[in-house]
Design brief:
The chain is α/β, with parallel strands linked by helices. It has 6 helices and 7 strands, in the order E-H-E-H-E-H-E-H-E-E-H-H-E. It binds zinc ion.
């Protein structure tokens, strides 16, 4: 199945926290979206791989993505190596996305920046015909990095005001991870109500710059090119 956008996160919930408003919006535009988790987030303090996978599949339905795949790389200890590059390349070549969204270039969680580089490298190598996976070569037209926990100045922002509530619903599908007054598990830096408040505050700051309530921010290693300057207002 070919998709327009492949959104990749190293942990289940990265995509929901950082770019699910943009995904919901593009699905409403008629674009198709696939999701890919590189790990099961099994080293997270709360929950476990099985529970987080159930939560991820619930969030996938809320977003309306065409599919969600998980690659079972080792949480915290995966490396940017041939094995991992080839596994990501196989998914890119199978689904032929025009756009890939991936983790922030650097972040509080060290996996995020490492995964960002791994995905960028895989998108490039996927276009090399001599890397043989028994599939035609395919290079996405662009890779954009969503912004997650630490503040990074975005290169562009997407108005997600109309999808902010649905995004919150997708995030809260991960009931083991985020604020849940009934949870008996240890508190973590992402389980407080203030965490989501900070996330939406960032979205509010980016929204304000373009005169809307909420926006999601992205960075790109390559200059974005436009045909029409009016697409940028
Ligand atoms: Zn993460």
């Amino acid at each position: 199945m070919q998709v327009d956008i492949l959104a990749i996160g190293v942990h289940p919930d990265d995509v929901e926290l950082s770019c699910s408003g943009t995904l919901l919006k593009h699905i409403a535009f008629g674009k198709s979206v696939g999701l890919l988790d590189l790990t099961l987030g099994e080293m997270g303090t709360r929950g476990n791989a099985e529970l987080r996978t159930q939560e991820a599949m619930k969030a996938t339905k809320i977003i309306g993505a065409a599919f969600r795949k998980q690659l079972h790389f080792e949480d915290c200890f995966f490396e940017n190596n041939k094995t991992h590059l080839i596994e990501i390349i196989k998914v890119i070549r199978e689904h032929k996305p025009q756009l890939v969204l991936c983790n922030a270039i650097s972040d509080r969680h060290p996996d995020h920046g490492r995964a960002a580089k791994l995905v960028v490298d895989a998108c490039f190598y996927s276009g090399l015909v001599k890397i043989d996976t028994k599939q035609p070569a395919w290079r996405p037209k662009a890779v954009y990095h969503y912004i997650q926990d630490n503040y990074i100045h975005p290169h562009f922002v997407v108005d997600v005001t109309a999808f902010a509530d649905k995004k919150r619903e997708a995030i809260m599908a991960y009931s083991s991870q985020f604020y849940n007054p009934d949870s008996k598990e240890p508190a973590t830096p992402i389980s407080s109500p203030e965490f989501l408040e900070a996330l939406y505050s960032k979205m509010s700051i980016w929204g304000r710059t373009i005169g809307v309530r909420y926006a999601e921010g992205f960075t790109t290693a390559r200059y974005p090119g436009v045909e029409n300057l009016f697409d940028l207002i």
